[in-house]
């Protein structure tokens, strides 16, 4: 009984959203013009600079620039001013504390096996059945459903331009983008997505990772980013696919589909990463630290 | 007369509308990438043998595009000094082998990706970062090339893909191995990896 009332309340909120949306859209259109203008300019610049032209005039410079590799011995000299050099390098390198390494390595191994034995075969079957265009549309839809996470976190960090960008994207994609199946904001207006989450918000205000954590099935994370994920799942309650609006089995089904769909678009990424690495565990950990650092900075 | 003025105005406007970020480093990356694309789109290479030939061509281009010695030095950092001259040479060769195995294969499987060169950033007097994005069907991947100028030649010493620096990523891996093991052990590990291919 209680659930029903709650459901009704949220349905009311959903209906309200539709009524409130129209004036907001109009207001946003006006407010967003500078953002559009900016992003469309950069797009044009990018296009102007775009090349995949078949430059045929590119006459064999291969032959003359041949094997000019490291024959000269001085290339292999000691790093003379290595202190200075090392300072620069250290400054750039990002580290993340990993006191639980044996524990993390165990879950890394578990996730690796789960991927190859379970997720990958399922995703391959799914990929075989569902055309790529559909899978990209599904991916757009799920991304749009979590828009509140990006909108609120942009706001928390007082990144007003990203707040408008993401809010505008949400409104456009939810309406003329067919509930988000089409990323019309990007395709029609050139408004590119910008990712923000609560882990980044914490990082923005100076909170460090704490320690590195590898979760079963969820993969690489840290204490900070795990807390962030928790906060984001609360924020996503205000989104389209809120667990509040949906029956539990439906929600679980959608989540599963989302995961399989995402993996189907990324088959081969993990394999290559693993193949290129000397120690895949460290490579992933370092990659995670570097990516998160960049995400916080932007 | 009017037409001339209009044309002049149009030229001026176009000139302002498309500011050029191009520099010598960007041009180098672009011309190398164009060469790679030319190899990839060459219809003469067919089947399994064609794939091998393509990979061989791309390896050749990578040799002049990348400064593998510099890449190695930066990756090892202080540990570089622990390696003997012969070990350094071997390290450079093995590292090159690992990178080529990992990326040349990937590049040959590219189909309809497009590359946009966004800009060239001056990092220091002799180094620059060329920023580009690889546009695929499901999204855009920022790829930055860090390059330096040695004897008038711009060569790549680091590639940053989606914010992850290749050099930093391998440095962390090598550092953990070298913390408890001698250089010979690392070389042995790398040798095995290259031979497995």
Description:
The complex is a heterodimer of chains A (298) and B (197). Chain A has 298 residues and is mainly α. Chain A is built from twelve helices and three strands. Chain A has helices at residues 2-48, 82-92, 101-129, 132-145, 147-156, 160-175, 184-189, 198-204, 223-235, 248-265, 269-276, 280-297, and strands at residues 50-51, 212-215, 219-222. In chain A, a hairpin with a 3-residue loop joins strand 2 and strand 3. Chain B has 197 residues and is an alpha+beta fold. Chain B contains seven helices and five strands, in the order αααααβββββαα. Chain B has helices at residues 2-17, 24-41, 47-65, 68-76, 85-108, 166-180, 183-196; strands spanning 114-122, 127-136, 139-150, 153-161, 164-165. In chain B, strands 1-2-3-4-5 form a five-stranded antiparallel sheet. Chain B is globular, with a radius of gyration of 20 Å. Chain B starts with a helix and ends with a helix. Mean pLDDT of chain B is 85; it is low at 11-20. The chains are: A mainly alpha (298), B alpha+beta (197).
Write a concise keyword list for the protein shown above.
heterodimer, A: about 300 residues, mainly alpha, two-stranded antiparallel sheet, 12 helices, disordered N terminus, B: about 200 residues, alpha+beta, five-stranded antiparallel β-sheet, 7 helices, 5 strands, globular
At a glance:
Chain A is mainly alpha-helical and 298 residues long. In chain A, 66% of the residues lie in helices and 3% in strands.
